[in-house]
Specification:
Chain lengths: 437, 568
């Protein structure tokens, strides 16, 4: 016999779908099928079943090979490394639950670490822009129930957030949007002809790196002022038309992704996109939302917000929280040789950081906590595999619209494996012992 | 648990009617007891000092999504505020929107031990509870917002009080909420379309209901359930010149309704931050105080309580579920604006704000708040708040006490205004020479608030059997003092006990306490229709499944449930 667990939350992307159905074996040990998830979400669940999964911590030897160690040894190494370092970097946090993030923050406070999450290489610029100008936003249900103008800017949900359009933004029929897709106008701004762009009513194929100009042109167009003939590769008639489309809607929403947060202009682009949204509120109702990537990158920003007051790049090394992106951000610290140990949990800098940063991790005492083998596990001294959050242990996660949802445990982790939270609690206990507090 | 005897302090306890007599207070097993019940107590010599019950804050914004937005989007609010960890004291920072850790410590330092979070969007209840869990020392509860909730709008449109009550009971249980909060009824739903409801008869777009119907219906549903607290109201038209008529119209909706609660409260409506709702005139040029008109009403109707929402003349961060108001504010000051509309439920806005003594309107607002308190005939029904952080910071409560207790302090503030004469002309404060005493302050910050919350069986006084929440202030009311001595002493209590644990000792944080979260579990008769409606709405319009909505008990590691039985 098998059993089906319903209302399961997908711990993959910031869409945080909560309607999955997972079929597990009667003994709760084996996960057999995943329904309702997109391909990447389903894979996340099924991956936990890999037969060659690593289930015990291991330490890199002189010759580069791995030696299995116990959790106790891994805890000892981690606690020593963190307490002995002058300024350890504790990076990641985007693919774990808020409970683990809170314990990790307490460790960071105790050892004077720099706490940073994956926003540092994706929506950190958005967070800076919000600090400049704020953000008129809403929950995804507002989009589902009210929005008739949807603008995707520099993002490709068809691939990166596969169920976003069907659950929230384009297709669903909501309370005031009974016609679903047919009642919505979809606009995509992207230099690439993506699968998302191919679905749009209007695709503005902007010149690479010209986002700020086009956003600014929209603000000009809202006011009916004069534009040059072509802005950012888009003819002015098209810009006036899009401006009119947005203004004439009842509820407009702009979703934006890394195509605009990490291109030329960075946070200034987002400033301007938010200004576009503010301006639109003079004429109709409008909101804007970052398409957050990891399923709980938003949560780590929330946890640090209430504990320290800053959403990322929090430097606790002086005994209090400092925040100065460009100085206290991971890559800047690594490349300036300012951190002397690296702890990674819930992300994969080995795959996403510049090579120069990865080399620095390789040259330092380092621990990575991750259920998977990743490029990061290849450069760290100790690898601690743990249970999958959202599959083998529950816990809170925040969707891209900041809505917190509690993920569910659907199967047992392999015998004897720790969860992130348990491992961190043990490290915190050991840190306190070493420090004699 | 340690026993304590707080000896010989000047005690102010409205519950027992003690007005500054030197009385001993005994603590055992977390409760106040008769002194004869102690065997070998630690003795605290409070000779020449003031002793009161722990403060109870009826309305502050200290945990949840909009508070955290305020923190995260204002790094400048942390400038020069950070305190490193020190012993058991954790790192803390932030001024108008402090971190959870600082929130707990700062309240405790003022002798406050219970604080209510005044607006919890139900969909974000989990977040609110996570923050409260990480706020040390304080007992807390949170009010879910109902005034723009689609279920409520639909039930009340047809005057289905029983259904509305069943829904309220369900939502309180799944969100672990404490009371029925209403913010700009109907207006916040209208804000979903960029609109507003400006008075109690302005219809809500699409829903075919008026704010008046929502207000009256929610009061009735609240009394149907017999909840500990009354309906908690933030009326329409906040912050606009001439709005006092809207406020009076809202008050009047409570007329003829009697409280039905076995928790000891006498009101059916608590109206919050009334300062923002007491404006005359029709523009910022001729805006004036209508505090007298408002207080005439409050003084003559004993089924209403209010809090003042005192402007403290600081830079701060405003935040409210009154979405259209925050948009209005950002249009006014052009500072940054965050907005968060919440599907089927509510909205919120956040905008930084500076209340400058150089601006006439700010001076008038300051005067109105104090007038409300000074015109109160019954201090058990009029409470000190700043609507933290909206009109000012909670750490200014002692400053407000100073202003209320001293005409000299008020004169000093008048003299510091750039437009002193205009402020005096537009208000009545300069003509009021009343000075409140510590007994009245204890009514406005402890006994009255605890009673209004339906918590007088736990907090607000020093009678045996109550929680051992006690504050000792280094302040001798019988010696001469200058006004600033009041602020200094009450900002920095010498000793504070929370449920019998000494959390402040010699002015320093001595324990992170064992905080509790209060919530109300109201039992109602089975209501298949409401449960069907809930299922249906979740299926079709929410983006979170019904089975993922409820806040599980483990988010409240130390929960205190108040059971209510409304099954007849
Ligand atoms: S869209 Fe994202 S959250 Fe939803 S199933 Fe796919 S990967 Fe999971």
């Amino acid at each position: 016999m098998t059993k089906t667990v319903t209302d399961v939350i997908c711990p993959f992307c910031g869409t945080l779908c909560d309607d999955l159905e997972v079929v597990v074996s009667d003994d709760g040990e084996e996960l057999l099928e995943v329904y309702n998830a997109c391909a990447i979400g389903a894979e996340k669940f099924l991956h936990s079943q890999a037969k060659d999964r690593i289930t015990r911590p291991r330490m890199r030897q002189e010759d580069g090979s791995w030696k299995e160690i116990s959790y106790d040894e891994a805890i000892e190494y981690t606690a020593r490394m963190l307490t002995e370092a002058k300024k350890p970097l504790m990076y990641g946090w985007s693919s774990t639950n808020c409970e683990a993030q809170a314990v990790g923050s307490e460790i960071g406070e105790a050892v004077g670490a720099v706490m940073d999450n994956t926003a540092t290489v994706c929506h950190g610029t958005s967070l800076i822009a919000v600090q400049d100008i704020g953000i008129p936003s809403c929950t995804l249900g507002e989009v589902k129930n009210r929005a008739d103008r949807i603008l995707f800017w520099g993002c490709n949900p068809a691939h990166a957030h596969p169920r976003h359009m069907s659950r929230y933004s384009i297709f669903p029929r909501g309370f005031f949007t009974g016609k679903g897709h047919a009642g919505r106008k979809m606009i995509v701004v992207d230099p690439r002809p993506t699968d998302t762009a191919s679905m749009a009513d209007v695709h503005l194929q902007i010149e690479q790196g010209r986002d700020y100009e086009l956003l600014n042109a929209l603000r000009v167009a809202f006011k009916g002022e004069k534009l040059p003939d072509v802005v950012a590769g888009i003819p002015k008639e098209k810009i006036y038309e899009v401006a009119e489309t947005l203004k004439s809607g009842r509820f407009a929403i702009i979703f934006f992704g890394m195509g605009v947060t990490q291109s030329l202009g960075k946070n200034h682009n987002i400033d301007e996109a938010i200004a576009v949204t503010r301006d639109l509120n003079e004429y109709t109702k409008a909101a804007i939302m970052p398409m957050r990537g990891h399923y709980n990158v938003t949560g780590s920003g929330q946890v640090w917000g209430w504990l320290f007051g800053f959403p990322y790049a929090v430097d606790l090394s002086r005994g209090f929280a400092r925040y100065n992106p460009g100085e206290t951000t991971s890559n800047d610290l690594l490349r300036r040789d300012e951190v002397d140990a690296v702890f990674v949990l819930g992300s994969d800098p080995g795959a996403h950081f510049p090579f120069s940063s990865v080399k620095k991790i390789y040259n330092r005492p380092s621990v990575v906590i991750d259920p998977h083998e990743t490029p990061t596990t290849e450069v760290c001294k100790v690898h601690v595999p743990v249970a999958f959050v959202g599959v083998e242990v529950g816990g809170c996660a925040y969707r891209m619209d900041n809505v917190p949802i509690e993920t569910r445990k659907v199967v047992e982790p392999p015998e004897g494996m720790m969860t992130d939270e348990e491992f961190l609690k043990r490290v915190l206990g050991r840190v306190k012992e070493i420090q004699g507090v | 648990m340690a026993e304590y005897l707080i000896k010989n302090g000047f005690v102010f306890d409205p519950v027992q009617g003690i007005k500054g007599d030197a009385v001993d207070v005994a603590i055992k097993d977390g409760k106040i007891v008769e002194t004869t019940a102690l065997s070998s107590p630690k003795v605290i010599d409070a000779t020449g000092k003031t002793v009161m019950a722990g403060g109870v804050d009826v309305h502050a914004h200290v945990a949840g999504p909009k508070v955290n937005t305020g923190r995260n989007f204002r790094p400048e609010d942390k400038l020069f505020t950070y305190k490193p960890k020190n012993g058991i004291e954790r790192m803390q920072g932030g001024f108008s929107v402090p971190t959870t850790i600082r929130t707990g410590y700062n309240y405790a330092r003022m002798g406050y031990t219970t604080v209510m979070e005044a607006a919890m969007p139900p969909l974000y209840a989990r977040h609110t509870h996570e923050e409260m869990r990480d706020t040390p020392i304080l007992d807390q509860g949170a009010y879910p917002v109902f005034g723009n909730n689609w279920f409520v709008l639909e039930y009340l449109k047809n005057h289905e009080i029983e259904n509305a009550a069943a829904y309220i009971a369900w939502l309180l249980r799944v969100t672990k909420g404490y009371a029925v909060k209403v913010v700009n009824p109907g207006g916040t739903e209208a804000w979903g379309w960029g609109l507003n409801c400006e008075n109690v008869h302005d219809p809500v777009p699409y829903f075919d209901i008026t704010p008046a119907q929502i207000i009256k219906g929610l009061i009735e549903a609240n009394e149907y359930l017999g909840l500990p607290h009354s309906m908690h109201m933030h009326a329409n038209n906040l912050g606009n010149p001439g709005n006092y008529t809207t406020t009076l119209d809202s008050f009047k909706l409570s007329e003829g309704i009697k409280p039905n609660s076995k928790f000891g409260r006498d009101q059916v409506m608590h109206h919050t931050h009334v300062q923002f709702h007491s404006y005359g005139g029709d523009s910022w040029a001729n805006m004036e105080s209508k505090a007298k008109e408002i207080m005439d009403y409050v003084n003559s109707h004993d089924n209403i309580t209010i809090d003042i929402g005192q402007v403290t003349l600081d830079e701060t961060t405003t935040m409210t579920a009154d979405g259209p108001f925050e948009h209005h504010l950002t249009e006014l000051n052009h500072l940054k604006w965050a907005n968060a509309d919440v599907e089927l439920e509510t909205a919120a806005g956040v905008v930084p704000y500076v209340y400058s003594p150089n601006i006439k309107v700010c001076g008038i607002q300051w005067a109105i708040g104090l007038e409300l308190a000074l015109l109160a005939k019954d201090p058990m029904r009029v409470f000190i708040t700043t609507d933290h952080p909206n009109a000012g910071l909670f750490i200014r409560y002692p400053r407000i006490m100073k202003w209320l207790m001293s005409t000299e302090a008020r004169e000093q503030q008048f003299d510091a205004f750039k437009h002193k004469d205009k402020v005096i002309d537009a208000t009545n404060l300069a003509g009021i020479d009343r000075e409140l005493g510590l007994y009245e302050i204890a009514q406005m910050t402890r006994a009255g608030t605890a009673k209004s919350l339906g918590l007088s069986h736990l907090y607000g006084g020093l009678a045996p059997g109550l929680e051992a929440d006690v504050a000792v202030y280094d302040f001798n009311p019988n010696e001469p003092y200058v006004p600033d001595d009041i602020e200094k002493a009450f900002l920095n209590a010498e000793h504070v006990f929370k449920a019998g644990v000494q959390v402040v000792k010699d002015h320093e944080i001595a324990s992170n306490g064992n905080k509790r979260t209060l919530w109300v579990n109201a039992k109602v008769n089975e209501n298949p229709q409401v449960m069907r409606d809930v299922k249906e709405k979740f299926l079709r319009y929410y983006t979170v499944n019904l089975n993922n909505y409820e806040v599980a008990g483990h988010y409240l590691p130390n929960s205190y449930v108040i059971e209510v039985d409304a099954t007849e």
